[in-house]
Amino acid sequence: MNIISEYTISHTTIAILPNLHPEYQTMIIDMEGIFYTKDRSGVILNRSCLKYGASYDGRKEAATHLTNYVQKTPILISEVEGIIALPTHSPEHEDCAWILYHQIKEIKPSKRTCCMIKFHNYTELEVKISSQTMRQQIQKASVIYSIFCTEQRISYSFVVEKGRRNFSR
Question: How far apart are CA 35 and CA 12, in angstroms?
Fold first, then answer.
């Protein structure tokens, strides 16, 4: 069991899961291994948001303001790195797992109320959420990604040569 005292979400994070243990309440699946911590997922999310420049509450408020997603709002952790965590349930719910959007490769139904998530590193995880609801969460995360993580700029490039005047009509 890999115990970690403080964890911050990064591009290697795959999922943050509730862990039914009296001391280590959160399990973290990372590309570098599986870790356990005493911190609840909310503490990890807030610490991670603060590392990248805003609080969890600020990130949630901005996403809700721009998208009107009031329930199970995905949280932008870092717009520069495109890191978005999407909850499987209400964040207050004991079964709420946080799945990192950029790691998801495929969703498959496994049972009526569960789905199997396959990640880019071919790790698989079954979560207590229907595949339809998980796809809705992915859709919400993609909207948040497009609002906060993409820049649509028009770039202008001019070359001015001295003494040359060439105008087209």
Answer: 13
Structure tokens at 16: 């943050």
Q: What pLDDT, in 10s, does the model give residues 7-26?
A: 999 999 999 999 988 899 99
pLDDT tens by residue, 144-158:
999 998 865 444 444
Instruction: Look at residues 129, 98, 99 and name the one whose alpha carbon lies nearest to residue 113.
Output: 129
Q: How far is CA 147 from the centre of its chain?
A: 14
Task: For residue 36, list its beta bridge partners.
Answer: 3, 27
**DSSP secondary structure code for residue 114 in this structure:** E
Please give the structure tokens belonging to residue 80: 């520069």
Nearest to 10 by CA among 45, 60, 58: 45
Please tell me the pTM assigned to this model. Answer: 0.86
